Amino acid sequence: MNKSTHSPDLTLLSRYIPRTPSIGSTTVTHEDHVHLSFGFAAPSLFPLVELEHASGAAIRSHGQEALQYAGAPGPAYIVNWIKERAHRNGIDATPNHILVTYGATQGLALAAQLLLEPGDEVWTEAPTFFSALQAFRLSGAHIRSFPLEADGLNVELLEQALQQARTAGRPMPKLLYTMPTYHNPGGVTLSVAKRHRLVELAREYHFYVLEDDAYGELNFTGELWPTLYSLAPERTIYLNTFSKIIAPGLRLGWMIAHPQLIDRLRILMLGGSTGVFTQEIVATLLQHIDIDRHLEQLRTHYREQRDVMAAAIDRHFGDAVYYVLPAGGFFLWLNFREAIDTTSLQQRALDYGVSIVDGRSFYPERDVHHQLRLCFSYCSAEQIEQGIARLAAAYRDDRAAELGEVALTALEYHNGA
Amino acid sequence: MNKSTHSPDLTLLSRYIPRTPSIGSTTVTHEDHVHLSFGFAAPSLFPLVELEHASGAAIRSHGQEALQYAGAPGPAYIVNWIKERAHRNGIDATPNHILVTYGATQGLALAAQLLLEPGDEVWTEAPTFFSALQAFRLSGAHIRSFPLEADGLNVELLEQALQQARTAGRPMPKLLYTMPTYHNPGGVTLSVAKRHRLVELAREYHFYVLEDDAYGELNFTGELWPTLYSLAPERTIYLNTFSKIIAPGLRLGWMIAHPQLIDRLRILMLGGSTGVFTQEIVATLLQHIDIDRHLEQLRTHYREQRDVMAAAIDRHFGDAVYYVLPAGGFFLWLNFREAIDTTSLQQRALDYGVSIVDGRSFYPERDVHHQLRLCFSYCSAEQIEQGIARLAAAYRDDRAAELGEVALTALEYHNGA
User: Fold this and answer.
1) Residue B110 pLDDT
2) Chain A residue with minimum CA distance to B71
3) DSSP-assigned states of every residue in A14-44
4) Is the Cβ pair A260, B10 closer than 8 Å?
5) Does pLDDT of A406 surpass 70?
6) Which of B52, B131, B175 sits opposite A270 (nearest CB)?
7) pTM of the full predicted structure?
C-alpha cells in the first residue's frame, strides 16, 4: 500500500488551480498570542443554551425528516425568516428569490460559477475580501480593482474605466463585487449617493453587482443604508450569512437574486440541499430567540470593542497612522503614513505575540502595502489593549531595524514583558 | 420595489449553465403515493436518540469552539475515524489524504473543478449517477460513456476507446468516473479482475479514476471488494459519505486522495471548513455508537427490502423484465425485454400512485431507454409490494394503450383498488 507515496499527476489539473497552494496567513499557535488577525465572531455571545435546546427539540420533533435529504419544516421556515428580515431592510423578495447556502463563502463560489468563464472580467474594490479574490481567480477570470475611499468604492474611477473599455471595445465586466456596508477589510461604508450611481452604472453598462452584506446587521450608529439589491434587484446578486449574527460554525448563509438566477444556482448545487439538519436546528432556534435583542447585544459589544481598539491605536501610534472609524462590522483598516511593508511587520508582530493580516492579502496584485487589517470582534478588550501595545512595539522595532538603529530584540522584549 | 419583476440579464451567464433549468423527476406530492424513485435512506434506522444525546453533549462540551470557523476536536476526530475505517477497507491514508465535504455530492463538484476545463474529456459508465453527469456538464467537459455489464463497466470497450483515441491523436480523458461497488442506478459491482485492469489503464493512459464508494458499506453478502484507491492511490480520487451509513440530512462526506491533490481541493473551499458544528455532533455520535452493529442492522434491513422487491417483481412481471440482483446498496435496475419508453411509463406510473425514475435520467445522451431505477431502501416492505403492483398495472396499461387495446384507465384502477 506504499504506492500512496507516489506523486500524483499534476499535469492533469485545471490550469486555474494554483500550482503552489498558498499557506494561510494565520499559522500562529502560541497560547499567549493575541489574534487580531482572526475575523471571528465573539464566542461569548453565541446563544449556546438556546442552541442546545433547539437541537434537542428539532431532533425530537422532526428528526426523521430533518435527517433526510429534503428536510422537515426547517428549510421553509428559514427561507421565510430571511424573506421577512430582508423586507425590513428594504428588499422585496419571495421564497423563489432566496437560496440557502453554506455561508456567504459558498455564495461567492456559486456566483462566480454562474457568470464567469475563463478570461471574463470581474471588477472589485481594492482592498477586498481575499476569499472573493480566490473564487474569481479559480474561475479563470481577469480581476481589475478600484480604490476604496472613506465613503467606499471610487465610483468615479469605475465609471471612467467603463467608458474607456466601451469606447475601446475592450471586454466589459460581467460582475462587480462589492461589500458596500462595513467593508472587510476596509471598515468603510458606501455613501447613499454612490450607491445610486453604482447601480445606474450596472444598468448602463450591463453588469451584475455581487453585493456582500455579511456585516450589514452589525450597525453601530443606527444609520440605515439602502442595499444595492433594493435599488436594482434585476442587476444584483445579494449575499448574507448567519455567521456574524448567530455563529459561523453553522455554515449557513443565503443569496437573494431574481428567481431565474436562483433556479440556475440550484442546478449548481447538484440536487444537494444545504445542511438540512443544521437548518432544522437553526429554524427552531429562530423561533425561540429574540433576534432583535440578540443583535442589540452584538452591536453594543462590538461597538465597545471597536472603541477600545481605536483608543489603543491613538495612544500607541498617534500620528504615525490614520484610519476611518468603522460604523459597524468587525474590522479596522490601519494605514501607516510612512511607506512601510506590512508583510514584514506581520512577521515581526508574530515575534511579539500578536497576529495581524498584512495589506497584501487583500489586493489582487499582492504588492507591498502600508496597510493592515485588525479585527476587534474576536478578542477581549484586555487582549485588544495588549495586542495593540505589542503591535506598536513590533512597529518601533521594525522601523528601528530599517533605520539601522540598535533595537530591543523580540526576545528581550518578551523576557522583559 | 416592483423592479424585482424585471427580467435579469441572462446573456451574462456562463455558457455552461443550462438555458432551461430541468425539473426534477420526482414531483409527486400525493400522500398515498409510493416513492420508489427516492434514493433515500430508511428513516426508521436513523440513530435519533443517539444524535439528540450527541448534539447536547457536543454543544455543552465544545460549543464555543464548535460554533467558530475552525471547530473544536470534532473535525480532527472525524478525519481520524475516516482514516481508521478506510484502513479496514484496505486504504492506507493519513489525515493529509482526507478532506471532509458536504456529502459525496460536493466531492463530485470539487473533483470536476480540480481537473476539468471546458472541452476536456470525462468518461463515465452508462447508466451513471445523474448528479455526476450534471457536475461534468457544468464544467463544460465532453462526456463519453461506456456500457455497464452484470460485472460492472465494460473495461474492454474502454480500453479500445483509449487505444483508438491515442492512435488518432484525439483528446484523452482526464477523468473516468465510476461507482464500482453497488452501482447507482445499475445495482451491479465491478469484478476484481476488471478492477485491476481498470487501474492499469489509468496508469497506462494517464487519467484519474473518480471512485464513488457511497454504497460500499452496504454489503449484503460479506464478500469484500478492493477499492480502486487501494489498487492505485496515485491515480484515484475516492468519494464516500455519511449519508448512507448515518443520515443524509447531515450533509457530510469525504474525499481521499494524494495530499498534493487534497491541498488544492482545500483551496477550492475558499477557506471555509465544512459544517464544523455538524462535524462536532457527528464526532460525538461516533464516539458513542457501535458503528459495526449499526451497519449490520442497515445491511440486514436493506437486504430484506431488496428481497421483498425482487420477489414482487418476479411475481408481477415474470419474463417481461430482467435484472441483476444487487449485492448491496439501494437500487434495483429493471430492464424490460421489449423496447418500451420508460419516460412514458414514469408518467403513467404517477397516475397509478407510484414514482420511479426513467432510464433516460442516467444516460449522458438522454435517449429513450427500456430501463428504470427502483429504490428499495426508503419505503416499507408493504409499500414496496404495493408500489410494484401499481407499476405492473401501469405497465400493462401502457402496453395496452400502445397496442391499441381498450385498457382500464388509471382512474378506474384507483377507484377499484
Assistant:
1) 97
2) A249
3) -TTS-SSPPPPS-----TT-EESS-----GG
4) yes
5) no
6) B131
7) 0.92
